[in-house]
Structures are given as structure tokens and as C-alpha cells.
Design a protein that fits this description.
The protein has 346 residues and is an alpha/beta fold. It is built from eleven helices and 14 strands.
């Protein structure tokens, strides 16, 4: 499934999935996770995409190692997507591996395509339409994917990237310039990536906040992807929940939108649950992406407003929709292997 879906199609499909979920809440359940004592984590994403004729789930497994300020995925088991016909319940496909984008066919993260496409949907719905300058925190696989996804939506004139390691940000700048013609400029201080920009993207593996909310300027939009789950704390893997944003960033935001409030509450996610518990914001002030897309939640109120899209965990509706799109493309190209499995039982 390498290089099977261009980002333009992935973004369109994910947006439709969220719109449909907002109309019918039973199409999706929050992501579920289990942890072994050795740090192996299984994530299961249930969802239905009737608009593509499929329902099912995606599951992936990874071995994690925790450090004081970040998390590292040491090994990824092959993700598996199970697709059933959404009208007849027949098993339609078992997809082993993750569909990757046409632009970045070689993927090193099981959820790279879905995560970046979801961030692109949320960013487009909230950032100023004339955004031209991006501040990026992170230089790994998700950062690469997010740059490509956002570059399909915006004509970015400058991209300022900061990471703790100079070699990493310089390597990303060279790769993006050489392979995609993107104007990426490494910067040596985090504040430089957070100021003088229209959009801030935090695509990191951080466990502590990567920017100071005091740096935020009028009109900026922030998209953030770290979504801690309380299981890491309960399992004794980390002493406190992971964060990517600080409380001041949450406090200063005029509008906060998430993929799923149920997910944030279930997982007691640090960037959302903790500020609510502290009285900095409330669940009533946090809105869901599907409601924003369908016009139930008002969007950006002015060009001076500060907005946040917290991509707070991949939802099954997006994984199943992308799996269904990949499956359809595979069939059109005559690929795949038909298994001699009879229908179900009555």
C-alpha cells in the first residue's frame, strides 16, 4: 500500500469522515489501548465509514521507551485494518501494513498518513486563510508528513523549524528543500519558531511542553498532536502525563477544537484534561472537529483570535475511511490476494 493515496485525497476523505461522525455519533468509539510491563502498547481504533461502504477497525502495536522529556517508539509491529461491509456485515478486506501517501511512500510510523491528514483538516478549518508562514516544532516522521500535508493547502513562503538537535532540523530543511521545494529555515531557539508566524505546528514526541504560551502573537493558530493517555502513568512507565502545550497556551486560546472530547476525558489527556481540572478552561469551551466542519460550532471569530486544534488521538472513522479508500484503489489496480473464506454465519 505504499504511495497509494495522495494527500489531497486523504484530507478530503478524513474531512468527510468527521462530518459524517458529527451527524451520527455511533459511527465511532474512542481509541482503546493496552500496555504490557515491557512497554509494548496495542492501540485499537474502531469506526465506520458508510459513505465508503465499510466498517471495522485498525490496530497497531509498538514498543515504547520513555525518557525524561520525550517518548521513543523503538519498534512498530505491522498495523492491521479489518474492513467489513457496512450494509451486509461481510468481511471484505484484511489490510496488513499502513497505507502511505503518494508524496511520502516510505513511512516509518503506522499512523503517519491519518495523523497528518487529520491535522490538515483541523488547521484549514481554524487558521487564517491567508496564512503564509509556519513555525514547526519537530523534525521526525510526523513533522515531515505534516509539512507535506499542509503544503497541499497553503502556499507557504517560509517554514521555521526548531528541534533540540541542530543536526535534525538542518537535515529536515535540506530534505524538504531538495525533494519538495519547500522553504524550510532551521532556527536555533524555540521562540523563533513560535513568533512571526501564522501557524504553529507541534509535531513532536515530547513529554513536556515545547513552547511558552507567553510567546503567542495575535491571530496565530496552533496545531498539536501529542495525546497522552493515563495508562502510561498507571502502568508506571512515566511519573506524570505527557504534555506538548503548556497551560498558558490553553488559557490564551480563544477557540479550542479537538478530534474527540470523549477521548480526552477517557484518557485524562494532559493538554486538555489537566487544564480543565485546574479551571483554566472547561469542557463546554472545548469543541469537536466534526461540529466545527458542519457549522454547529462557530469557527475563528476574527483575524486576531488565537485558535488551537488538538489532534488528540486518531479516531477509527478516519482509519477505516482511509483503509476503505486504499482497498478500493487496490482493487482498481488489480492488486491484493483473494482468500477462500466463505461468508459469515446466520
Amino acid at each position: 500500500m505504499k504511495g497509494i493515496i495522495p494527500y489531497s485525497e486523504a484530507i478530503k476523505t478524513v474531512e468527510t469522515a468527521y462530518r459524517e461522525w458529527a451527524k451520527n455519533p455511533v459511527l465511532n468509539n474512542p481509541r482503546q489501548r493496552t500496555h504490557t510491563p515491557d512497554g509494548v502498547r496495542v492501540s485499537i481504533h474502531h469506526g465506520a465509514a458508510p459513505f465508503l461502504g465499510m466498517t471495522g477497525y485498525m490496530s497497531h502495536c509498538e514498543l515504547l521507551k520513555q525518557f525524561p522529556e520525550h517518548q521513543k517508539s523503538v519498534f512498530h509491529g505491522h498495523p492491521v485494518t479489518i474492513l467489513y461491509d457496512s450494509s451486509t456485515a461481510e468481511l471484505r478486506a484484511i489490510l496488513v501494513g499502513n497505507p502511505t501517501s503518494k508524496e511520502l511512500p516510505v513511512s516509518h510510523a503506522a499512523t503517519e498518513l491519518r495523523t497528518a491528514a487529520t491535522s490538515a483538516v483541523g488547521t484549514r478549518a481554524l487558521a487564517r486563510k491567508d496564512s503564509k508562514i509556519l513555525g514547526l516544532f519537530g523534525a521526525g516522521n510526523q513533522a515531515r508528513a505534516h509539512l507535506i500535508a499542509l503544503s497541499t493547502l497553503y502556499k507557504l513562503q517560509k517554514i521555521k523549524v526548531y528541534t533540540r538537535t541542530a543536526a535534525n532540523r538542518e537535515a529536515l530543511a535540506r530534505e524538504m528543500a531538495d525533494n519538495f521545494g519547500l522553504p524550510v529555515e532551521p532556527v536555533d531557539e524555540p521562540r523563533k519558531a513560535a513568533t512571526g508566524v501564522d501557524i504553529i505546528l507541534t509535531a513532536t514526541n515530547a513529554s513536556v511542553p515545547v513552547l511558552d504560551g507567553k510567546w503567542l502573537e495575535e491571530g496565530v493558530h496552533i496545531t498539536s498532536i501529542v495525546s497522552s493517555n493515563i495508562g502510561l502513568v498507571k502502568g508506571g512507565f512515566i511519573p506524570k502525563k505527557r504534555r506538548e502545550l503548556d497551560n498558558e497556551t490553553i488559557r490564551r486560546a480563544n477557540l479550542i477544537v479537538v478530534c474527540s472530547k470523549s477521548q480526552a476525558i477517557q484518557d485524562e489527556q494532559g493538554d486538555l484534561f489537566d487544564p480543565v481540572q485546574a479551571g483554566i478552561t472547561s469542557w463546554a469551551e472545548i469543541h469537536e472537529l466534526g461540529d466545527l466542519l458542519n457549522g454547529k460550532t462557530p469557527g475563528r471569530a476574527s483575524n486576531s483570535a488565537i485558535t488551537i486544534f488538538k489532534n488528540n488521538a486518531g479516531q477509527g472513522i478516519a482509519d477505516v475511511a482511509l483503509g476503505a479508500l486504499a482497498f478500493r484503489t487496490i482493487l482498481e489496480k488489480g492488486g491484493g490476494q483473494e482468500l477462500s473464506i466463505e461468508g459469515g454465519s446466520q
